[in-house]
Amino acid sequence: TQVIKDGGPLPPPPPPTYDPDYIQCPYCQRRFNQSAADRHIKFCQEQAARMPNKGKLGDTKKPPGRTQVNTYRDRTGHCMCTQQTICGLLENIISLMESKYTCI
């Protein structure tokens, strides 16, 4: 607390301590005592078999994020797009979003 008052850097946190009697699940990396590990690992193995994309820790993939559609509009909100197919697509997207802008 004296370090915080002086504004100095904090010391590093202590390393995590694990109970050596605990058993780590190979599927989710959590740790359990012997009896809980026997039940959990069987359960976790069944779940991993049912959902192959949710395997071991670190194998998870993020779904692709939304891509932002750039619309080219003048000050009044009218579309200045030169490609009619893109303009029509943007018009459909905008109408689905209930926007006040429409393509002309």
TrEMBL record:
Residues 52-71 are annotated as: Disordered. Residues 21-50 form the C2HC/C3H-type domain. InterPro entries: ZC2HC1A/B-like, Znf_C2HC_C3H. GO terms for molecular function: zinc ion binding. It comes from the Eukaryota. Keywords: Metal-binding, Repeat, Zinc, Zinc-finger. Belongs to the ZC2HC1 family. This is Zinc finger C2HC domain-containing protein 1A.
